[in-house]
Amino acid sequence: MRRPDQIVHSRARVTSRYALMPMEGFPPSRLPGWGDAEVFVLASPRLGAEFVEYVVDLPASSTGRAERKQGVETFYYVLSGRGRVNGTANELTTGSFGLVPPDAEAPSFVAADSGTMRLLILHKRYESAPDHAAAVGCTGHVDDVAAEVWADNPSSRLQALIPDDPAFDMAMNIFTFDPGCGLPIVETHVMEHGLMFLEGRGLYYLDGEWMEAEQGDFIWMAPYCPQSYVAAGPTPTKYLYYKNVNREVPL
């Protein structure tokens, strides 16, 4: 944040096709169920997204609960800190994640007494599929998810946090690119994205323009927004992204 006497500027870009927004530009909000936690709403239908995504800073020893909405599934990812899902003994650490299926009890989190736990939360209305069982919950830690070589390039690796199964209508993946590497094409597809930079920096191509992106940035990409990326910093890039998958396009 700049001094009050300085002229401010930002890398933020918001259009009807995409948005690139550094976290420094999000003023904190409060949400019911989260107590004194600071909440930063990243994506919502008001932006043009068909999902809601936000970051929560849950203070030490505090409890917060995601709102339960009928037919809505919830994904969470621990960006930093420690804690647990309330009512369980399973510890959450940086890189822990979980998917809560639609109509299940909304997850309630407790931050450890050692400091703030930062969570990424995503809500999506679940789309059922004929002849397929409904999605079930899953939990895990990123360190236990295999990093698969992507596009025959060992410098590009993909971790799928949600099973690639027709029961699931969404994917949450982590891409890792070594310096100087990235997507080998400009993608244009029907899926939309919500993308959080976890590490590194580089150049993102969005709807005809290359722009800087770095750790802490959030990007929303609408369906059919041309997109690509190259890691341009001295360290690998790692980002977590959502996309809707495995369903017919409604008419």
Structure description:
This protein has an 8-stranded antiparallel sheet with strand order 1-2-19-16-21-15-14-13, with no helix packed on it. The chain has a 6-stranded antiparallel sheet with strand order 3-4-11-6-9-12, with no helix packed on it. A 4-stranded antiparallel sheet has the order 5-10-7-8, with no helix packed on it. The N and C termini lie far apart (45 Å). It is mainly beta and 251 residues long. β1 and β2 form a beta hairpin. The chain is 0% helix and 45% strand. The relative contact order is 0.18. The chain is globular, with a radius of gyration of 18 Å.
Short description:
With 251 residues, this protein is mainly beta.
Radius of gyration: 18 Å
Q: Spans of 5+ residues with little confidence (pLDDT < 50)?
A: none
Give the strand content.
over 45%
The coarse overall form would be globular
**Widest beta sheet: strand line-up:** 1-2-19-16-21-15-14-13
Query: What is the number of helical segments per DSSP (H or I, 4+ residues)?
Result: 0
What is the helix fraction of residues, given as a range?
A: under 10%
Summarize model confidence as the mean pLDDT.
Answer: 94
Can you write the helix and strand succession as a string? EEEEEEEEEEEEEEEEEEEEE
Look at the helices and sheets and give the structural class.
mainly beta
Biggest sheet overview:
8 strands, antiparallel
Number of strands: 21
Distance between the termini: 45 Å
